[in-house]
Amino acid sequence: MADLKTDPRLTPARPDLAAKFLEGKVKAGRFVEGADCEVIAASAPVRHEPSHQSSLDTEALKGERVTIYDRAEGWAWGQLQNDGYVGWLPENALGPIAEKHTHKVIALRTLAFPGPSIKLPPVDVLSLGCRVTIARHDGPFAITPDNIFIHAMHLVPLNVMEGDFVSVAERFVGTPYLWGGKTSLGLDCSGLVQVSLEAAGFPIPRESDLQEKSEGTAIQSRDFGSLKRGDLIFWKGHVAIARGDGTMVHANATHMCVACEPIETAVARIRKSETGDVSSIKRLNFVSR
């Protein structure tokens, strides 16, 4: 049996262990059934190795489900169910599947309180996209089954989607650049694209090379002033979002934050770096304007 050509970022397989559904498709020492759980922390790092010193590959947000195949010394190895990413998560960030989630955070971040008062010390900080279960309401607060109070204005039902994903990305302007990040405390270029599109109801892969290969029609023109709002501009290892006025928004290591700037200016600067020239421009057919 020969190994299939697989992307290790999206394939729960190692030389010693692999997911049961891959049996007969890849080589591994043993195959195991996964156990489903969910992220109970506000966010959970997904790392390449089971160590806090290992690189941050991505993050999983509160309420996200994960299939776990292995555990070792406080770490759990598995696959995120939202985008299929594989890696190691801290065990203490995971818990059993909770009641069906009803709402998600729509603010960049919101505080969770132990009671019905903003004067109480908050118990958590939840970022845009976190999922929660709301059991009841009391005045301005939405209350979870375990009596955590969140301002209702910062939540919407799960089926409510943003109308313009670019506006979501623009709200992150000034957020620090963080390799592998996906929250308002820090994110990277592809994290910004993924979080913004998901808020509008459009799932997309996690990393820029995978995003470039996903849905969308290639735009041949390099007249950057003619790009429409929501077009994605790709370089090797980088992605930005056109705003429709000759400017773009992106998380980048030059500004070390999410920033808006003229496309021509950014292209000229990036061309001089190891990233090089624009590799493609994609128009997302499912995005209405």
Topology:
Layout: E1 18-19, E2 31-32, E3 35-39, E4 43-47, E5 56-61, E6 65-72, E7 75-80, E8 86-90, E9 94-95, E10 103-105, E11 109-113, E12 124-127, E13 131-132, E14 136-138, E15 141-143, E16 149-151, E17 155-157, H1 165-171, E18 182-183, E19 186-187, H2 189-199, H3 208-213, E20 217-218, E21 232-235, E22 238-242, E23 247-252, E24 257-262, H4 263-271, E25 280-283
Parallel strand pairs: 1-2
Antiparallel strand pairs: 3-6, 3-9, 4-5, 6-7, 7-8, 10-13, 10-17, 11-12, 11-16, 14-15, 15-16, 18-19, 20-25, 21-22, 21-25, 22-23, 23-24
Helix pairs in contact: 1-2
Describe this structure as you would to a colleague:
The chain is mostly beta strands and 289 residues long. It contains four helices and 25 strands. The protein has helices at residues 165-171, 189-199, 208-213, 263-271; strands at residues 18-19, 31-32, 35-39, 43-47, 56-61, 65-72, 75-80, 86-90, 94-95, 103-105, 109-113, 124-127, 131-132, 136-138, 141-143, 149-151, 155-157, 182-183, 186-187, 217-218, 232-235, 238-242, 247-252, 257-262, 280-283. A six-stranded antiparallel sheet has the order 20-25-21-22-23-24. It has a five-stranded antiparallel sheet with strand order 8-7-6-3-9, with no helix packed on it. Strands 12-11-16-15-14 form a five-stranded antiparallel sheet, with no helix packed on it. A hairpin with a 2-residue loop joins strand 18 (182-183) and strand 19. Helix 1 packs across helix 2. The radius of gyration is 20 Å and the shape is globular.
